Amino acid sequence: MNGPAVNGSAGRTTVSGAGAGPEAAAGSCPADGGAASGSGGCPISLDPLSIDPLVGRLAEETEALRTAGPLARIDLMGAEAWTVTTHAEARRLLTDSRLVKDITTWNLWRSGEVDESWPLIGMVDAGRSMFTVDGAEHRRLRTKTAQALTPRRLAAIRPAVERITGELLDAMEAHAAEAPGEPVDLKAAFAQPLPMSVVCSLMGVEPELEPRLHRLYEAFFSMLTPQDERLAVIQELDELYAEMVEEKSASPGDDLTSALILADEGGEPLTAEEVRGNLEAMVAAGHETTVTLILCAVRALLTHPDQLRLVLDGQVGWEAVIEETLRWESPSTHLLMRFATSDVEVAGRVVREGEAVVMSYRAIGRDRAQHGEDADCFDVRRSAPIRHLAFGHGPHICPGAGLSRLEASVALPALFERFPSLSLAVPVAEIRNRPVLTQNELESLPVRLR
């Protein structure tokens, strides 16, 4: 669950401050000659709303970032930052205490060049949770979550994962019987409802709330959502989770929300705001991660039939499929963001105090120095273990990684067992990503079940 949290506030759709907008950033780059794109003089634009966005062409985006070097200069919808593109540097920096989550240390925030109008502010100024604090406070909040998200609780949720998976597959099979040959969107029919239902079951959320949560998160992550609407979405999510925490505080049950409220070891109990913040962040990041993991694994296997055959014949395990997918198509493309509290040297360059640093996990997963010259190839036969960073590293490593792996380990074999003739219903070139900057999210995955 290594993705953006939901909270904060937003307003207009432009970044305040002279010269801070995308047009100014583009205009500062030389038309010919001068610094290479991303080298520091000419940032690489990562803007889903631009005329020809790299965000929708991930292979080109990854190559541009790699070409710029281990530390590349980027423009995130009008706000400049650095991004890390290699495994070794990311692993080192993710444990560097000089890089913190506190937005008040960001020079663009302090100067007012970035304010609440920035379209990505809800992913950076994300309220109080274990995802947004560091040091002792982070350890306190994370410890409480670890107490709640125990191996016992994960083991207990497995039957629910299997039940929900079976129900969704039954519905797909019924559709195939009624409309043989008609394509099915695997995202809408399977990959999206499964993790949402699982995380709601884990948290003790009533099933009737699932469509509402799905609608809210779809609107929050999409860069096509007008900023005033996103503000309303954030407010509605805040109120929904606040009500949930209040209800569980009054009448706790055997669920994650109640466990967070009742966790009492290792310091002060969590406040209602902290419980809400942790839950919001975990649901936002957790279900998105698993949706992408399932869809990208299916797409990879269907476009590599020789490898799919190895898996179905039992020569390669599903764990290898999951880990190779996490490396090859990381669910989080760009994780926002950390801020330097002092100058930090990275690969011969310097991130200055107050500057922002992003981790570009898709580029990191394709790092040839770490994974070999064939890093751009999907290969479930890679030597184990596949040491990727898709769930992060260090103090902020994703606490829900085990849940995502559990869901994928149930969903993928069940899907291919039920539909052994599963195939893509469109050419792979027609499969598009949504206009989401932080997530590797497909718009849809049309398949034929038989």
Automatic annotation (TrEMBL):
<protein>
    <submittedName>
        <fullName>Cytochrome P450</fullName>
    </submittedName>
</protein>
<dbReference type="InterPro" id="IPR002397">
    <property type="entry name" value="Cyt_P450_B"/>
</dbReference>
<dbReference type="InterPro" id="IPR017972">
    <property type="entry name" value="Cyt_P450_CS"/>
</dbReference>
<keyword id="KW-0349">Heme</keyword>
<dbReference type="Pfam" id="PF00067">
    <property type="entry name" value="p450"/>
</dbReference>
<dbReference type="InterPro" id="IPR036396">
    <property type="entry name" value="Cyt_P450_sf"/>
</dbReference>
<keyword id="KW-0503">Monooxygenase</keyword>
<keyword id="KW-0479">Metal-binding</keyword>
<keyword id="KW-0408">Iron</keyword>
<comment type="similarity">
    <text>Belongs to the cytochrome P450 family.</text>
</comment>
<feature type="compositionally biased region" description="Low complexity">
    <location>
        <begin position="21"/>
        <end position="34"/>
    </location>
</feature>
<keyword id="KW-0560">Oxidoreductase</keyword>
<feature type="region of interest" description="Disordered">
    <location>
        <begin position="1"/>
        <end position="38"/>
    </location>
</feature>
<dbReference type="InterPro" id="IPR001128">
    <property type="entry name" value="Cyt_P450"/>
</dbReference>
